[in-house]
Amino acid sequence: QVRLVESGGGLVQPGGSLRLSCAASGSVFRFYAMAWYRQTPEKQRELVAGISSSGSPTYADSVKGRFTISRDNAKDTVYLQMNSLKPEDTAVYYCNVRIGSSYNGENGHWGQGTQVTVSS
């Protein structure tokens, strides 16, 4: 059974940084795309960043130049380095792993979510 465990969320001031981690277990994840999504009470869950099985990244326009997604296939872990954080980055961040190259829809497996709050 696939299990995703996220960590690294918390409270940070505007302009600060956080690093999210998502450790996966239960399958061979080097063949999966891995991604981070986020959701607030006001908005639907949206893609923040994804990384394909070959390591090609995709970013939402709102985070380009500030966030970096990476993966360590030896550890079955995906990371999201978030710099220059803004209050509008406040959300629950979810880890996702899926087969295929599309990040659309609710496919794949999801973590439990980790809260990121950007506030002074």
Describe the secondary-structure layout.
Elements (H helix, E strand, L loop, with lengths): L2 E5 L2 E3 L5 E8 L7 E8 L2 E9 L5 E3 L7 E6 L4 E6 L8 E8 L10 E2 L3 E5 L2
Parallel strand pairs: 2-11
Antiparallel strand pairs: 1-3, 3-8, 4-5, 4-9, 5-6, 7-8, 9-10, 9-11
Folded structure, characterized:
The protein has 120 residues and is mainly β. It is 0% helix and 52% strand. It contains no helices and eleven strands. The chain has strands at 3-7, 10-12, 18-25, 33-40, 43-51, 57-59, 67-72, 77-82, 91-98, 109-110, 114-118. The strands form two sheets. Strands 2, 4, 5, 6, 9, 10 and 11 form a seven-stranded mixed sheet that branches. It is globular and about 40 Å long.
